[in-house]
Design brief:
- This protein is an all-beta fold and 379 residues long.
- It has one helix and 25 strands.
- The protein starts with a strand and ends with a strand.
Length: 379
């Protein structure tokens, strides 16, 4: 199956200059390119997170609470046993997965999930475990929960959650505001609507903000529901995408000790059409790098660095759920100057996007019969 998408007017453009102070939206469309789309694997139950193992096999989380090992050719899939119980109502379940920076020697994986906590409710948690593989599947050993979002909330929405290792081996965890507790995204003493920054053992990272009333694990506040995160390949800085309400999806680069506004400022509106907060700006609160209005329900983020698509280098690739697309953002001097819609003809929700070792792009589609796709240049 072929998509139509062509050569670009923009080549590799710089991220090095400071970002603009005003938020941006509705960048012009760039010329299209030709992309070959292959289905690697299918029949996945609402796949959420993806990693490529050193031997070429794939590790995929399914939101109903299953961890899958998929052969390199996509023809065979096995269950990995030992996954903790997940809260699987609505948006909850087994979420992201990340390989330890030392995976080749320690075999550790980290994963986030919606953890049931009895009468208190539930919350986003992060666990680590040793991945033990055999000829057919494998299991998790020594599962340890290293982070529990506090407080627990009786909600089935807005869990976040992406996991990104920083270059120093610490771990960024994105969390949601849990929908029913959105005002708590402004409370730096808890973990709702925050970027969390911890060590691989779950302790607060050493360079976290040392601010009065801030929980020691909190990096930044004022976020709604971050479902995409990645390190910038040149600067090593964390970038995130988060859902707005009706409009107001955001691309940010969260910095330590800063407030990103939700729900005091936003470019979106509430689901009943009413305004949220005080408007789009307030002193002491950060503007997004870019926002989408109407919302495309962003999920999954990566920066392309490979050789297969040389004109994509430095571009961001962002999945969309309601928008049913993969969006490519082109930058110049830290500003989004163009965008392109990929996979729009599929009409399928895009949950995650990753770069394969060979420079192709891997995409997870979110449905009860989800697929793992590979994008490469069309002949």
């Amino acid at each position: 199956m072929m998509g139509r998408i062509a050569g670009f007017a923009f080549g590799m453009l710089s991220f090095w200059a400071p970002l603009a102070h005003a938020a941006q939206t509705n960048a012009p469309s760039t010329a299209s390119s030709r992309v070959k789309i292959e289905t690697v694997a299918k029949g996945l139950a609402n796949p959420w997170g993806l990693q490529v193992l050193p031997d070429g096999r794939f590790l995929v989380t399914e939101r109903p609470g299953r961890l899958k090992l998929i052969s390199a050719d996509g023809k065979t899939a096995w269950d990995i046993s030992g996954v903790p119980k997940c809260e699987t109502q609505r948006q909850g379940g087994l979420l992201d997965v990340a390989l330890s920076p030392g995976f080749a020697s320690d075999g550790l994986i980290f994963f986030s999930f919606s953890e049931p906590r009895g009468e208190a409710g539930n919350g986003t948690s992060v666990a680590r475990a040793k991945l033990v593989l055999g000829g057919e599947g494998g299991h998790l050993e020594n599962v340890q929960i290293i982070f529990q979002q506090q407080p627990a909330i009786n909600s089935a929405a807005h869990f976040g959650s992406r996991l990104v290792f920083a270059r120093d081996g610490t771990l960024f965890v994105t969390t949601g505001d849990r929908f029913s507790a959105r005002d708590q995204a402004q409370n730096p003493g808890n973990h709702l609507g925050k970027v969390i920054h911890i060590t691989a053992d779950g302790a607060p990272a050493a360079d976290n903000p040392k601010l009065a009333s801030w929980d020691g694990k909190v990096w930044s506040i004022g976020h709604r529901n971050m479902q995409g995160a990645a390190l910038h390949p040149q600067t090593g800085q964390l970038w995130t995408v988060e859902h707005g309400a009706m409009g107001g999806d955001e691309l940010n680069h969260p910095e330590a000790g800063k407030n990103y506004g939700w729900p005091v400022i936003t470019y979106g509106r509430d689901y009943n059409g009413k305004s949220i907060g005080v408007g789009t700006a307030k002193d002491g609160m950060e503007q997004p790098v870019y926002y989408w209005d109407p919302s495309i329900a962003v999920s999954g983020l990566m920066f392309y660095t490979g050789d297969m698509f040389p004109s994509w280098r430095g571009n961001a690739l962002i999945g969309a759920l309601n928008g049913a697309q993969l969006q490519r953002l082109v930058f110049a001097n830290g500003v989004v100057v163009a965008q392109e819609t990929l996979l729009g003809e599929f009409g399928e929700r895009i949950r995650d996007v990753r770069q394969a070792p060979d420079g192709s792009v891997l995409v997870l589609t979110d449905s009860p019969q989800g697929r793992l796709l590979r994008l490469s240049p069309a002949p």
